[in-house]
Amino acid sequence: MSGLRVIVGCKRVIDYAVKIRVKPDKTGVIxxxxxxxMNPFDEIAVEEAVRMKEKKLASEVIAVSCGPIQCQExxxxxxxxxxxxxxxxxxxxxxxxxxQPLHVAKILSxxxxxxxxxxxxxxxxxxxxxxxxxxxxxxxLLDWPQxxxxxxxxxxxxxxxxxxxxxxxxxxxxxxxxxVLTADLRLNEPRYATLPNIMKAxxxxxxxxxxxxYGVDVGPRQSILKVEDPPVRQAGSKLDSVETxxxxxxxxxxxxx
Amino acid sequence: xxxxxxxxFLKCLIGQHTRLSRDHLxxxxxxxxxxxxxxxxxxxxxxxxLDDPFWAFYWPGGQALTRYILDNPGLFHGKTVLxxxxxxxSAAIAAALAGASKTVANDIHPVxxxxxxxNMEKNGVQVKPETYNYLMCQPTPxxxxxxxxxxxxxxxxxxxxxxxxxxxxxxxIHPDSMVLIGDPGRLPFRQHPLQSSLKCLHQYxxxxxxxxxxxxxxxxxxxxxxxxx
Lengths: 257, 229
Ligand SMILES: Cc1cc2nc3c(=O)[nH]c(=O)nc-3n(C[C@H](O)[C@H](O)[C@H](O)COP(=O)(O)OP(=O)(O)OC[C@H]3O[C@@H](n4cnc5c(N)ncnc54)[C@H](O)[C@@H]3O)c2cc1C
Ligand SMILES: C[S@@+](CC[C@H](N)C(=O)[O-])C[C@H]1O[C@@H](n2cnc3c(N)ncnc32)[C@H](O)[C@@H]1O
What we know:
The complex is a heterodimer of chains A (257) and B (229).
Chain A: E1 4-9, E2 12-14, E3 36-38, H1 40-54, E4 58-67, H2 71-81, E5 85-90, H3 93-96, H4 101-114, E6 119-123, H5 134-142, E7 146-156, E8 159-166, E9 169-176, E10 179-183, H6 195-201, E11 206-209, H7 242-251
Parallel strand pairs in A: 1-4, 1-6, 4-5, 5-11, 6-10, 7-10
Antiparallel strand pairs in A: 2-3, 7-8, 8-9
Chain B: H1 4-17, E1 19-21, E2 31-33, H2 60-71, E3 80-84, H3 90-97, E4 102-106, H4 110-122, E5 128-130, E6 150-154, H5 163-172, E7 178-183, H6 187-190, E8 198-205, H7 208-213, E9 219-225
Parallel strand pairs in B: 3-4, 3-6, 4-5, 6-7
Antiparallel strand pairs in B: 1-2, 7-9, 8-9
Bound molecules: flavin-adenine dinucleotide and S-adenosylmethionine (SAM).
Flavin-adenine dinucleotide binds at residues 16, 40, 185 of chain A.
InterPro entries (chain A): ET-Flavoprotein_bsu_CS (IPR000049), ETF_a/b_N (IPR014730), ETF_b (IPR012255), ETF_beta_N (IPR033948), Rossmann-like_a/b/a_fold (IPR014729)
Pfam family, one (chain A): ETF
Family (chain A): Belongs to the ETF beta-subunit/FixA family.
């Protein structure tokens, strides 16, 4: 089963450390001038794909990103991490606001067919929309088995043995390739791209495509009614001793007097 | 060619931003390289005072090719050798150590020319650095690439933009030249039309350091180009 071709979905999202601000008209969140990076779960997926390549399980790792021109930075990062080449499917900023998992799943499925991929690897979810849909939809569109929330992936006799994180425990399943995998947080710790890797990635091939090249209509299937901030938490206060804390808690009736 | 004062400046810059390293597949050679101990290793590209310092990294294809030369000196003894895209100059230096009668280390990067000179001095051999661009020239019968017995290419298939120029150029060189290629399995190489004219001579495992510098790569091979080109 050596020589698997692996496609990895790499979404450019607002960096996980940035404080999110909702637009005044509540149609979405402010993205202009905000630091973006690769969705952390996608970084984990890229890392795992590159490790599969290093273990000679995979022969080629192809990073794919759908979105505006800045996605090319995300793809350069994926290639600095070890992806062999990348495909940027350009969707202009306005259209991208309404690009949904179904669109991305359709594009990834088409790319998988064109590239004769054996594995489509995505993050379990993107930390911006938290949809947790793309990988599953790819599996449905391609009619491939799926192993989602993967925290460990091994190969055994032409099959992949995948440990999945499920509520309160772990599940181990076997899937035949071709298959869709989605990465959970504990699958691995992604490597950091150093200068030599970043420099060499500058020359790796990046193909530029449009959704229409894959015959995908990116017209929205849902409309966003409103986006709201979580309720504001009441301000806390700083206390100078444990005694004061205990008194406060007693006064509030939170611990028995 | 870089002028005198400028060369002194570049030598200082190279000395300042690199370490002398033997941590690679050819520890017989000591080379000025950017290593994990260097500030630049951790810097971003925008903050680098050196523009695309490809010569400051010892590419996996070049490491394997240089190893092959050091392990098979008889092939190179008394031969004229061209190392195209020489980078740090390692393959040319190894050929000179093996007793080549003339060795040209060709790289279009002007800083590479200075780095090659520094590396050649450190290893106590003579090679001729040059920056002529064979790939971009329009070869006419009168200015064809001079005849070399052996042409070396270490990791020259890293840039898909000029892989086709390499094919074109290879058709223009003297038919008796032996062409040796070192490559770690880069996609533009694996998918290159030349593939059907190549024979694999040897495969090397990369060092741990080289793997860290080249995410996803673990081996590099030596290929011999045979007819038809
Ligand atoms: C890629 C990614 C995936 C994630 N996936 C999940 C997930 O699946 N499920 C999930 O629940 N979360 C997830 N998270 C969220 C992450 O686990 C949170 O960072 C974590 O829950 C800690 O939250 P925190 O912001 O309160 O941070 P922390 O700083 O870690 O704080 C933890 C807690 O410590 C206490 N604390 C910290 N500092 C102080 C202080 N100065 N004084 C008093 N108390 C203090 C507070 O009680 C605080 O809530 C994910 C995050 C990332 C980046
Ligand atoms: C990938 S590096 C390989 C360096 C070295 N051979 C090694 O393996 O370590 C490619 C080198 O080719 C040089 N180069 C690029 N285009 C060139 C050309 N047209 N002619 C000669 N050298 C070129 C670059 O400056 C760079 O140093």
